[in-house]
Amino acid sequence: MKHRIVVLGAGYAGATAAGRLARRLHPDGTEITVVNADAEFVERVRMHQLATGQRLSPRQLRDIYAGTGVRLRLARVTAVDVDQKIVTLVDEHGVDEIAYDTLVYALGSTAADHGVPGVAEHAHDVAGKQSALRLRDRLAGLVAGENILVVGGGLTGLEVATEIAEARSDLTVALATRGGLGDWLDAGARRHLRRVVDRLGIAVHEHTDISRVEATSAITGDGRTVPAQVTVWTTGLAVHPIAAATTLELAETGQVIVDATMRTISHPDVYAVGDAAIADGPGGKPLRMSCASGIPMGWQAADAIAARLTDREVPKVSLRYFNQCISLGRRDGLIQFVTADDQAKTSFITGKVAARYKEAVCKGAAWSIVHPTMLLPTRRRHTTTIQKERRAATA
After folding, report:
1. CATH code at 197?
2. pTM here?
3. Are 157 and 32 members of one domain?
């Protein structure tokens, strides 16, 4: 009987893990199934581009996994029983269940509203394709002079604000951030960011909390009203709620706690990767939710699963950071080089070179997903069970 591996979610982490498993394990002894609600691989790092009306190349998962041996199941996960090893799904045909021997949990995250009143009712986000498309349609209906407020001064907030300001120079764009503008960056990088924001005409509300979002405005923590026909909420991510209904051991963030091999600490047959998991990076500092974390987490989980199924030593994938890539519209960017634990160095790249650098990083990440069997030498090893059966048959 084949060892059944089920991967839940085909974002950067889940798709990476599935493709790498297909390259590591022989199909005689394993069956790999990917479950995903969307038929396409979504380049989440480009959602700010989608929101401003840019066309992104569609990447069908069926095409990606064609010829790899990976089975694709287009369905929405509604429950996971990690004790009985059963996943409950809903698709166009109704409710179904599939069983697994090894599970890779990679259901990712969505925008976090942090309980701020009015966010769910009135704010937009770019945490997924559908929400980015809703924002695109809303922006298309705005007329010259109307106000956009982007809440959140992290990487996503900076990219959304600058992308909108560049694409729609007729609109009035503002950015609200709890801290100073780019205050985690090197001083020289901050100066460049300030110049870009000023050039694009973005009004920055620094050291500002938003306490409520209304239909045409946002209210700050100190009671000021910021006009906004559209508010875009980019203040962080919240994990998919499925894990909270399981017996998996979770962190306070709702993320699944994993060891250095991405194996959950409570269920040895379950691995978790990407935004859904909390793993330690250099210095014991938890990895942040990002594509930069998710892809190597997918590598590590796949390599660990393959090694354990084939009775080989588990390899260690480097989980560290090298840079933070920020697009500032289509013609400018900022690459902040960082230490292994994500602290800014004094070195950075700006301008058109940085924009091309960021584009190359995005294309490279997508290429690795779309070509799952081309990055590594093919070494499809038989599972230990198959090896024992073959030795017994020839004895």
Report:
1. 3.50.50.60
2. 0.93
3. no
